[in-house]
Each structure stands twice: as C-alpha cells, then as structure tokens.
C-alpha cells in the first residue's frame, strides 16, 4: 500500500509534504491539551492548588483550541486540494498514457474495464484518500503524544493500555486480508455490471425485438445480482473483526482500571494518577478506533490504486531512432502477425506499394486484409518482419508521426457529439473555416448539410446518431480530405451503402486519393478494377498479386471471386405459393 501511495505522491511532492506537516501539527494540537489536563489534575491533588496557575492552564487550553480550529480548517482545505490535485494528475497521466498505447491494448482489454479504472477507481482513491489519510495521520500522531503523557505519569498502567495495540493489529491484518480478497471480487463484479449494462443499452433494439428485456436478459440480471452479493460481502465480512478489535481495546481499558485500583489500594499509585488514567487513558483509544475503521477502508482504496498503476505500467509504443520518412511508399518485408499471442493472422507477407499508387486488398473474410491496414497505421506492431514507410521502419517513428502521415476512412465511422463542422475540423484543428467548407464540398457533405436547421453547425449526435450511414461516411471523407495526409487507407468504405450514397462516396473518394499512396480493402471487386496492383489474400498468406486483367487471366482465387460476384449481383425473395 505504501509503495502505491509513494507512486502517487511523486506527481505533487511539495503539496503532499505540506499536507502531511499540517496533519501532524493538527494531531499534536489535538493531543497536547491532554498534557495540560494532566497538569490541572496534579495541581488539584497537590494539597494546596493555586487558582491563578489553574486559570493559566485553562487559558492556554483555550488558546490551543483556537489554534486547533485554525489548523483543522487549514488542514481540511489543504488535504482536499492535495487529493483533487493528485486525482487530476492521475487522470491526466492515464489519458496521456492511453493515447500512447497500441490499439492492441484496447483489443486485449475490455473497454469497460479501462473506463472503470479512469472513472471509478480514481474516484475511489479521491473519495477515500481525501477523508481517510487525514484522519489516520492525526490519529496516529495524537496517540503517540498521549502515550508519552501516560508513560510519564505511570509507565506500568501505560504499558497495559499499549499492550492492546499489537493484539488489535493482528485482528486488523485478518480484516485486511479479507478486504483484499473480497475487494478484488467486488471490483470485478462492478466492472462486469458496467460492461453488461453498456451491452444492454447498445443492443436494446435487438433485445426488445427478441423479447429479452428486464430479467429475461440473463447476463445483465446475473451481473447485477453478483454485484449485489459482492457489495454485501465486502461490507459485512471485515465488519466483525473491526468490532472485535474495538472490544479488545475496551477490555484492556477495563483491565487497566482493575490494576490501577489495586495499585491505589496498595499505596503505589497516587490519586491524581488514577484520575488521570480514568480520563486521559480512555482518550488514548479514541484515535486508534478511527485508525481501525479507516485502515480497512484504505485497503479497499489500495485495490483501486493498484489497478490504476497497472494500467500506467502497460508498455507504450515508442520510437527507436525517431526517424521521419521523405517518401511515402509502403513496404512489407516478411511480416507475420497474430493477435493476443494466438496463431498468426498474417504469414510471411511481403509487398510494396509505390508512392502515389493505388493497391487493393481482396480475399475471403478473415484473410488478414484489415490487419494489414492496422499495421500500416501502427495500431499494432508486427510480430516478425518490418513495415516501412519511405524506407523507414514504423517502429523507428513516433506513433504521432505515423498517424500524421495517414488518413483513414473505414466502414464504421465514429463522430463526436459535436457539430458537423467541428467533426470535420478534427482532421486538422488549425484549418480555417474556408478550408473546412472546401473539404465538405469536395466530400459531398454540403449536399445534405445545407438542408439541416443549422447547416454545418448542426449537431451530429453521439457517435453520429443524428445522421445516416452515408452522411457519416461523407463527413469521414471530408475529415480525411482536410487532413491531406500522403497515405490513405480505405477499409470497406462503400460496403454497406445504398446505390445513391455509394455514388456520392465514390465521387468523394476520387477527390481524396488524388496524388496519394492508397491502400484499399474491398469486397466489391468492380470498385478496384483500375487499381495499380491487387493483392489476393487467403488464410493470412499472399495467394496472388497483379492487375485486374493479370489475375483474371491467371484463373485463380481472384477469378473465382469475380465470377461469383458477377453471377450473384443481388439477392431475391422467392415467391411462395400459398395454394
């Protein structure tokens, strides 16, 4: 736990030191009045108490109370500033770190789990740390000071009281172990609930159409029940041990009273010391009881903090030599690649796409077409072999530099919950308004945007849900046109469009690919007849390559796919004779 906290503190060491110092001072001013109370008791039992001296002690205690109040306010403010500064730094670090990870990281981990780390786990740290650390620091320091007063008064009785602490600590270690085990299960159940609920919302149309709403949607119902059970266990199971620890403190206090009365009866303990232990001795345990509860809570916070640190330790994509290409041809040299350490999706692939040419990738589903475009964009790094742009291995380039060289238009388009204008501007944030409008015009966006209430400044909705698939695709192309990158990746850009939209998209794509190095993934072979070269993939290997005419003449896999598409043309519903 301490290791995790130090990892967090490194982001704002000065603020942490200031906060800890204030907590220690606050703890001291909580405990020091007990020393003056001890002096008052001794003065009262001195046989000839001096009124002026007693009043001086009282006035000093009032002054200490005022200082304690000031320190309490100052400590609370500083502690909260520190906590929210630390959590802000954590979120910023997480955000910057996530954008430097390969896309493979997001494929390997549940997106809901990553979202839970950034939102809920940091929030857990924020909430618990802000209240718990302050209490514990003050409580521990106050206990030390009160212990010193009691040891000075009578070391025998003080040791009886302090003997309870190691026994309580053993009980808390047991509670700590239970919280650790149950806390991890609770976090897992929480993440499953979030993931299942997101699945439920995103698939609500299909769920309703098949009558799977409510409890009939079993996976969400199970996740909610598991989360409820895990939450109950996390709260209930450590509770009895904390109560037992509190009872141990009470029993040792009663034991101390019995021993103190015996000492008093034997004449080895003064009346003033007896009164002191009856009053101040009980106060020794008040801070400890705070620590007992807060430590168990802090252990749960440590689980969240460990998850945050685990994400921050995921290896980032980095550049070796930080080179920048001068040309924009794309070369694969003996590239093999597999997802999640599984069998290779690509097997010893080699090819070259000359600068300012168009290459098409075709083949059955699962043959590795999209994987090739992902390796070019450095969403993943090749397991074996090398991917080069202009003679430079992409692993020797900063990821941001690779992204700057590439524009992408995929079948699945994501638009931000912003205006159409700002979604296009995302391609090049420093572009002028005229440049955005020009890109929108070339991509056929203006044809439908001017019909909307606010034109280009109409909202696209979350994920572009206010627009049709064809409209989103045109905005995506406008974004790519504005970016004007030298390499263009097109992945099934027209696969699921109606004929009218497909015409618009084809016109927009013609503008996009002018004087660019273009790699196209296509199922409709008629759209890539004029490609400079066509690669035919099968089971992750390169089956054929050449121009359309070369491949038709070769009478291989490409020729088979071409004939099938020419024969099918479309599907029909056969008429059924109802008799």
TrEMBL record:
It comes from the Bacteria. It is found in: Cell membrane. The chain crosses the membrane at residues 20-42, 54-73, 133-152, 158-179, 236-261, 267-285. Residues 19-288 form the ABC transmembrane type-1 domain. SUPFAM superfamilies: ABC transporter transmembrane region, P-loop containing nucleoside triphosphate hydrolases. GO terms for molecular function: ABC-type transporter activity; ATP binding; ATP hydrolysis activity; ATPase-coupled lipid transmembrane transporter activity. Gene3D superfamilies: ABC transporter type 1, transmembrane domain, P-loop containing nucleotide triphosphate hydrolases. PANTHER family: ABC TRANSPORTER, ATP-BINDING TRANSMEMBRANE PROTEIN, ATP-BINDING CASSETTE SUB-FAMILY B. This is ABC transporter. Residues 330-564 form the ABC transporter domain. Signal peptide: none annotated.
């Amino acid at each position: 736990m301490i290791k995790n906290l130090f990892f967090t503190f490194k982001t704002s060491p000065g603020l942490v030191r200031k906060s800890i110092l204030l907590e220690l001072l606050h703890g001291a001013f909580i405990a020091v009045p007990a020393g003056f109370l001890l002096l008052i008791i001794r003065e009262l039992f001195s046989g000839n108490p001096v009124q002026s001296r007693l009043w001086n002690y009282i006035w000093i205690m009032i002054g200490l109370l005022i200082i304690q109040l000031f320190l309490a306010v100052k400590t609370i403010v500083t502690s909260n500033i520190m906590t929210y500064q630390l959590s802000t730094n954590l979120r910023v670090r997480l955000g910057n770190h996530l954008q430097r990870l390969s896309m493979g990281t997001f494929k390997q981990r549940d997106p809901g789990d990553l979202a839970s780390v950034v939102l809920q786990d940091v929030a857990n740290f924020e909430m618990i740390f802000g209240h718990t650390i302050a209490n514990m620091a003050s409580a521990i320091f106050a206990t030390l000071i009160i212990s010193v007063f009691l040891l000075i008064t009578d070391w025998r009785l003080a040791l009886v009281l302090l003997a309870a602490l190691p026994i309580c600590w053993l009980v808390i270690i047991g509670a700590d172990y239970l919280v650790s085990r149950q806390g991890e299960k609770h976090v897992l159940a929480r993440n499953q609930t979030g993931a299942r609920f997101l699945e439920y919302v995103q698939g609500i149309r299909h769920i309703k159409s098949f009558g799977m709403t409510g409890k009939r949607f079993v996976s969400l119902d199970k996740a909610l029940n598991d989360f409820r059970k895990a939450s109950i266990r996390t709260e209930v199971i450590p509770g009895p041990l904390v109560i037992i620890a509190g009872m141990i403190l009470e029993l040792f206090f009663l034991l101390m009273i019995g021993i103190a009365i015996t000492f008093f009866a034997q004449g080895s303990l003064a009346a003033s010391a007896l009164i002191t232990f009856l009053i101040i001795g009980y106060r020794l345990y008040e801070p400890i009881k705070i620590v007992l509860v807060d430590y168990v809570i802090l252990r749960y916070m440590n689980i969240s903090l460990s998850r945050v640190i685990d994400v921050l330790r995921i290896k980032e994509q980095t550049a070796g030599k930080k080179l920048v290409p001068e040309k924009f041809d794309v070369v694969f040299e003996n590239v093999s690649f597999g997802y999640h350490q599984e069998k290779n999706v690509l097997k010893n692939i080699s090819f070259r796409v000359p600068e300012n040419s168009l290459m098409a990738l075709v083949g059955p589903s699962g043959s590795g077409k999209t994987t090739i475009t992902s390796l070019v964009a450095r969403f993943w790094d090749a397991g074996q072999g090398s991917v080069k742009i202009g003679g430079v291995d992409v692993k020797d380039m900063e990821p941001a530099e690779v992204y700057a060289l590439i524009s992408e238009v995929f079948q699945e388009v994501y638009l931000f919950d912003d205006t159409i204008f700002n979604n296009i501007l995302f391609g090049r944030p420093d572009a002028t308004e005229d440049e955005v409008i020009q890109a929108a015009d070339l991509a056929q966006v203006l044809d439908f945007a001017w019909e909307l209430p606010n034109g280009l400044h109409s909202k696209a909705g979350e994920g572009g849900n206010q627009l049709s698939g064809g409209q989103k695709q045109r905005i995506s192309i406008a974004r790519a046109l504005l970016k004007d990158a030298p390499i263009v990746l097109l992945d099934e850009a027209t696969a699921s469009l109606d004929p009218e939209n497909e015409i618009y998209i084809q016109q927009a794509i013609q503008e996009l690919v002018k004087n660019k190095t273009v790699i196209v993934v296509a199922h409709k072979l008629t759209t890539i007849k004029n490609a400079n070269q066509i690669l035919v993939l099968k089971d992750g290997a390169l089956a054929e390559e050449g121009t359309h005419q070369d491949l038709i003449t070769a009478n291989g896999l490409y020729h088979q796919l071409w004939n099938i598409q020419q024969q099918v043309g479309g599907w029909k519903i056969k008429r059924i004779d109802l008799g």
